[in-house]
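Weekly puzzle thread! Below is a chain. First person to post its structure in token form gets bragging rights.
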Amino acid sequence: MKVASSNAPAAPEWNSSATVGRSDGAATTFRSFDLTSQAGVLKVGANVLAVQCLNENPASNDLLFLPELLVSTGPVTSGVSPTAMVHDGSPVQFERSARLKARAFGGDEWSALTTALYTVGSPAAPGQLVISELMYHPPKDNPTEFIEVTNISGQHLALAGVAFTGGIDFSFPETAILAPGQRALVVQDLTAFQIAYGSGLPVLGEFENGTRLANGGERIVLTAADGATLQDFVYGDLPPWPESPDGPGASLVLIAPETDPDHADPLNWRASVEQGGNPDASDTIAFPGNEADDLLNYALAEPSEIKVSLDGESLFVSFRQFLAADQARVRLEFSDDLLQWTPANPENLHSRHNHFDGTVTTIYELSRGTSAPPHRFARVRVAFR
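Winning reply:
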């Protein structure tokens, strides 16, 4: 947004010239521009000042430019603030959380300032707020990390007092409210995030105290205002955790967040479909059918292509599935007699190869061992989540 200009054509091009020159003597004197009317374009966090400087003609061989932005705040020196409201004795109603500040005027003196926080909504409690997406290792270690939280309750949640106390440091704004189903973001660096994802997303603030998410995984702790634990888990970057969020560009996405899945279970997480993830959005594919065959085709990219191979004492079973088919639960099961089937343990998940086309090849490994039965069978089980 253009906020000021001087000695410039109305619509300057990249190679335009200044309309008026300034002498060398005047060049050392600051020229002031009152930007009070444009104060609303400033955002919480870092802001970028972009400037186009013009010389009077192409032969000019010097240019001096020293920008300085001065902001003044403070109490009203006299009288009542123009934004103050006179209380007429009627009840004060709040449509959103706010901190109320009040003084009383008696005779010719004002009372001391009193303040109180009024919240709209219920304090966030366990089972109501999930961590739905993590961008913990952006490509080239760009400072575009983010954490997304989602309100999975049926009521407005007041986030006053909610804080990340493990992994990163961050205290949510005292007036922050999340409507049912609403998402909010906490980012590493606001400027870098907006360059990568644009403005207008529900960013509540930046990581505090220079903290950032560990590329190799770490413990994340989210606590409520009363000290209760909202989420506490350790994410990883090696199997059984998805590997593509660790640098190639995908984010780590919680599967079916509305069900409040166990965040510590790596099988409840997957890579995002798109590189960069999808902050404040979901890339989930809705199930379009109602028959068993529809469910197979919804979940598996190649329903008939389940591959088995041997490598020494290890048995490998692989299948290709759609990343965002979150309404289906896909699991591998083993049997020695085709009668009793045992689900594979998360530790048996050897790797998840993200093809970055919306599909992933999942590979399980089972050690044969010397005491293994002569026959071993495997099947892929697909069920509604």
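Puzzle host: Confirmed. Bonus trivia for everyone else. The mean pLDDT is 88.
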